[in-house]
């Protein structure tokens, strides 16, 4: 059975920086740099311009990942696309990306399968587990695994939505997951979900139980209420559950392979809130130097956080061949997961 390893990483964030101060001056949100930094560690985020879709960000990150993997794009045998802000409700963004990558072009069109994953902040790890399983089954040799979001179009950038909209940013990270006979790669993963907490962090956008599924005004036009349009979050509940689940899934996954926290060279945690990650780090007694964060610069890019972290850590030399990496995520659902990789 082959092993699955990450053969190439890539990322792309839109050029427009929005600082915490600009949320106050440009968007007139009643917040402050001090409030946001103190509670979350976030200093700025990137916002895509109107006209830019999730698959556009993913395309640029994919090109970098494929280049770094040293393969031809036509060697990709499957696309897995994790996002909660897809280009459209359907079809999935993986289909848009496949076409933009040119995989449908000419006589050598590959028409590879494209799978969208809807597991929010845990989406990349659910995708990694899927890619790992597909590769270990022998079905495919190279999977393009994407985590990408355009949040800025679908968060409430007013004071009404400040508890959510000040946290999120746009960006894409992509990895190529490849088969290898070498003794390296994804060693173990665990995933989990607790649907009892679905309402703690959700965006309803539509309610398919209703007839019609969104309210209509007197002229018969769709009428979207703010509580349907934008995400809603119980921040304190999310914080508490994130700490508990991230610690337990990390310790369980290490225990499954008879390893301890000391064996891990680099911890890459979902970038939802720097304070959550620091709290866990202190609870576990792990040295701060073993963590790499970028939430200060990008905010929470949901499915994008882990692949962007991987790509930046590789680019700046924090992540080197032979290192043992522990990835831990938590998000809406609630969903969570951990993966151990020998890089
Ligand atoms: C979001 C979070 C920073 C809020 O911190 P908190 O201390 O729990 O704050 P609360 O939501 O209880 O709100 C406290 C007050 O701050 C206000 N507030 C919320 N967001 C604010 C903001 N961006 N700026 C200023 N004030 C804000 C609230 O309106 C509330 O005011 P009130 O007391 O007058 O009603 C924190 O709960 C958190 O980080 N939770 C986890 C979120 C997360 O990780 N989500 C993604 C998971 S994938």
Key terms:
343 residues, alpha/beta, Peroxisomal Thiolase, Chain A, domain 1, 2 domains, 5-stranded mixed sheet, 4-stranded mixed sheet, 13 strands, 31% helix, binds coenzyme A
The largest β sheet comes out as:
5 strands, mixed
Strand content: 15-25%
- Determine the number of helices (DSSP H or I, runs of at least 4 residues): 11
Bound molecules: coenzyme A
Strand order in the largest sheet: 1-7-6-4-5
Just name the CATH architecture of the largest domain. 3-Layer(aba) Sandwich
Mean pLDDT: 97
Using the coordinates above, name the CATH class of the largest domain: Alpha Beta
State the shape.
globular
- SSE order, one letter for each helix or strand: EEHHEHEHEHEHEEEHEHEHHHEE
Q: Give the helix level as a range of percent.
A: 25-40%
Poorly predicted residue ranges: none
Number of domains: 2
Instruction: Let me know the CATH homologous superfamily of the largest domain.
Output: Thiolase/Chalcone synthase
Structure in words:
By secondary structure, the protein is of the alpha/beta class. The protein has two domains: 3-182, 3-Layer(aba) Sandwich (Peroxisomal Thiolase, Chain A, domain 1), CATH 3.40.47; 186-199 and 230-342, Thiolase/Chalcone synthase (Peroxisomal Thiolase, Chain A, domain 1, 3-Layer(aba) Sandwich). It has helices spanning 20-25, 33-40, 54-69, 93-100, 123-136, 162-165, 226-229, 235-256, 274-284, 295-298, 305-315; strands at 3-12, 17-19, 44-46, 78-82, 114-117, 142-149, 171-180, 185-193, 201-202, 232-233, 266-269, 324-331, 335-342. The structure holds coenzyme A. Coenzyme A (COA) binds next to α2, α6 and α8. Coenzyme A (COA) is lined by residues 31, 35-36, 39-40, 121, 162-163, 166, 201, 235-236, 238-239, 242, 272-273, 276, 300, 331.
């Amino acid at each position: 059975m082959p092993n699955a390893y990450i053969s190439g990483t890539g990322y792309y964030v839109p050029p427009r920086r929005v600082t915490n101060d600009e949320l106050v001056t440009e968007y007139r949100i009643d917040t402050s740099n001090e409030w946001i930094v103190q509670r979350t560690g976030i200093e700025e985020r990137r916002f895509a311009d109107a006209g830019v879709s999730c698959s556009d960000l993913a395309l640029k990150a994919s090109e970098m990942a494929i280049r770094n993997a040293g393969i031809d794009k036509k060697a990709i045998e499957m696309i897995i696309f994790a996002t909660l802000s897809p280009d459209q409700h359907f079809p999935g963004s993986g289909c848009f990306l496949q076409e933009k990558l040119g995989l449908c072009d000419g006589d050598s069109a590959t028409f590879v399968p494209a799978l969208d994953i809807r597991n929010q902040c845990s989406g990349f790890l659910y995708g990694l587990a899927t890619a790992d399983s597909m590769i270990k089954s022998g079905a495919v040799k190279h999977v393009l695994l994407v985590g990408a979001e355009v949040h800025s179009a679908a968060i409430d950038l007013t004071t009404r939505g400040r508890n959510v909209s000040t946290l999120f940013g746009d960006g894409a990270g992509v990895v190529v997951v490849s088969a290898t006979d070498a003794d390296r790669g994804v060693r173990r993963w665990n995933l989990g979900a607790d649907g009892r907490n679905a309402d703690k962090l959700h965006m309803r956008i539509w309610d398919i139980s209703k007839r019609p599924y969104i309210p209509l005004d007197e002229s018969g036009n769709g009428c979207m209420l703010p509580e349907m349009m934008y995400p809603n979050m119980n921040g304190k509940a999310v914080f508490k559950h994130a700490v508990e689940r991230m610690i337990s899934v990390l310790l369980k996954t290490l225990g499954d392979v008879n390893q301890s926290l000391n064996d891990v060279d680099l911890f890459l945690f979902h970038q939802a809130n720097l304070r959550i990650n620091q709290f866990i780090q202190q609870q576990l007694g792990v040295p701060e130097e073993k963590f790499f964060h970028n939430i200060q610069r990008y905010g929470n890019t949901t499915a994008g956080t882990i692949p962007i972290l991987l790509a930046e850590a590789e680019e700046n030399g924090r992540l080197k061949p032979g290192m043992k990496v522990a990835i831990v995520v938590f998000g809406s659902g609630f969903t969570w997961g951990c993966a151990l990789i020998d890089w």
